[in-house]
Specification:
phosphorelay response regulator activity, 10% strand, 4-stranded antiparallel sheet, Transcription factor, sequence-specific DNA binding, 43% helix, 11 strands, alpha/beta
């Protein structure tokens, strides 16, 4: 058995060894060892010459790895042995699947061949040389270099290096291209940030538009209800006058529209014609107002609420109760507070109020149901819903239950003041009515009742005065 095996030195040259017989082994001691093993026939069941004698075959790679490699070679696995054969230009014989299945040496056998490696031909072993390690350098960039052997094998064992090098080269970018990609990424990031900001602004604009739309819907619904009431009262008045012998022109028509009294924020309310000039918050036109004056404009823009109105606040939230009571007392109103719908019904059955502020979601009984019950015995007291649910369907539901208007939460003191002006500006506080002061204030009569013709006739003086 040989005691030495040729290994490459640090400078790429082969190490020259000496065998047992003292003969110079040259540069292919590895090949000579393999040749002697095959010639001895000691392991024919593991490795042997082929029938033609121009190649050898490893029949059992596992047995070759466990029995032959540890004793004769310095290789720990069969792959390392194959790589060593490739360095001496041995090539694996490629066979098809059918040829492997029909091979006399076994389906998992490996066959290797070299032109100068033949049976009983030891003299030709000197012609088998180790391939020189010629390297090819591939520059990836200024600091990275990929080193590749020029003489790579053709049997696919070491082709992993080629595939890895190709993958690296195909996926590697130089510095200018990297900086260009980096600038593109930064530009895309800035564009994404800009689009996010624009989307946020559009979302805010949509929310504002939705709020304005809800307000307009609320005002339109309130307008229709109020207009229907006015037309009914005017028809009663006409019938009464006709029954007393007064002639009514045949072409007399009634416009049941009224100006939208709750303007949308940051937008002017459209001016709509009306034959009832006593509607709240109506600004006189240029023909009606006569010479220009700043005093009427100030009064119209900043109306002053008459003190002494008695308001019922139906609310279960302590903070909302505190704030609303503070605002109402600031505007000269007296406040009585109840915290649920049942208490509100009981209170309204016993006492009269100028206005009711009704929350919707409350314990015991909700505000909408409580309002529908109140309307069975009181159709005159204005009831204002206070809620954050201002969808179209919710607004219709509240109005159908008998509520006059909706004060959307959260609201400011100005919103509350506008609501009070809308429903109390032309009314006389009930406390003054009880004291017998109604006759002393003909300019601010209470709103007419459905069947009270006398009150409708009494409203004629303020109508004429507002037209002046």
């Amino acid at each position: 058995m040989e005691t030495s095996e040729d290994l490459p030195s640090s400078n790429g040259n082969d190490v020259v060894g000496v065998n047992k017989l003292g003969q110079k082994s040259g540069s292919n001691d590895f090949v000579r060892k393999l040749f002697k093993i095959l010639e001895s026939g000691e392991y024919t069941n593991i490795v042997q010459w082929t029938d033609d004698g121009d190649s050898f075959v490893v029949r059992d790679t596992n047995a070759f790895t466990t029995q032959i490699l540890p004793q004769h070679f310095k290789h720990s696995n069969f792959s390392s042995f194959v790589r060593q054969l490739n360095k001496y230009d041995f090539h694996k014989i490629k066979r098809t699947t059918e040829e492997k299945q029909n091979s006399q040496y076994g389906e998992h056998s490996w066959e290797f061949k070299h032109p100068n490696f033949r049976i009983h031909d030891e003299e030709q072993l000197d012609n088998i040389k180790r391939k020189s390690a010629v390297q090819r350098k591939i520059m990836l960039d200024d600091n990275v270099m990929l080193v590749k052997n020029q003489n790579s094998n053709d049997n696919g064992v070491s082709s992993q290096f080629d595939s890895a090098a190709e993958m690296i080269l195909n996926n590697t970018v130089n510095k200018p291209k990297f900086h260009q990609l980096k600038r593109k990424v930064e530009a895309l990031g800035q564009e994404v940030s800009y689009l996010k900001n624009e989307n946020y602004e559009l979302k805010l604009g949509y929310q504002k538009s939705q709020s304005r739309y809800n307000t307009l819907m609320e005002n339109l619904i309130s307008t229709r209800e109020f207009s229907n009431m006015l037309v009914t009262n005017l028809n009663i008045l006409i019938n009464s006058l006709t029954s007393q012998g007064l002639e009514i022109p045949g072409n007399l028509t009634f416009n049941a529209t009224m100006p939208i009294v709750r303007p949308v924020q940051d937008a002017q309310s459209p001016q709509m014609s009306s034959v009832v000039p006593t509607l709240p918050l109506r600004k006189p036109s240029s023909m009606e107002s006569g010479p220009s004056s700043t005093t009427p404009q100030v009064i119209s823009d900043h109306p002053i609420l008459r003190p002494g109105f008695h308001v019922l606040l139906v609310e279960d939230d302590s903070i909302c109760i505190q704030l609303c009571s503070k605002f109402l007392m600031k505007y000269g109103c007296t406040v009585e507070v109840v915290t649920d719908g049942l208490s509100a019904i009981s209170t309204l059955e016993k006492f009269r109020f100028d206005l009711v502020l009704m929350d919707i979601v409350m314990p015991s009984l909700d505000g909408a149901t409580a309002t529908s019950i109140v309307r069975s015995f009181d159709n005159h007291t204005p009831i204002i819903a206070m809620t954050g649910n201002i969808e179209d369907q919710d607004l219709v539901t509240y109005l159908q239950h008998g509520m006059n208007d909706i004060l959307a939460k959260p609201f400011t003191k100005d919103d509350l003041h506008s609501m009070l002006i809308r429903y109390l500006r032309n009314r006389v506080p009930l406390s003054e009515q009880r004291a017998g002061s109604l006759s002393k204030n003909p300019q601010s009569p209470p709103l007419p009742h459905d069947n009270d013709v006398t009150n409708l006739i009494r409203e004629e003086p303020p109508i004429k005065k507002q037209r002046v």
